[in-house]
Amino acid sequence: MKYLLFLSVFVLLAGCGTATSSDDGNDEVIDPYADPPGYSGDPFAGFGSVTSIRFPAEGDAGIETEEPADLYGPWSIQVAACGSMDAALTLRDTIAAQTDQPVFVDHIGSYYKVRVGSFETSSDSDGLRVQLRSGGYPDAWSVRR
Question: Burial level of 143, CB count in 10 A (0-12/13-18/19+)?
Answer without folding.
Answer: middle
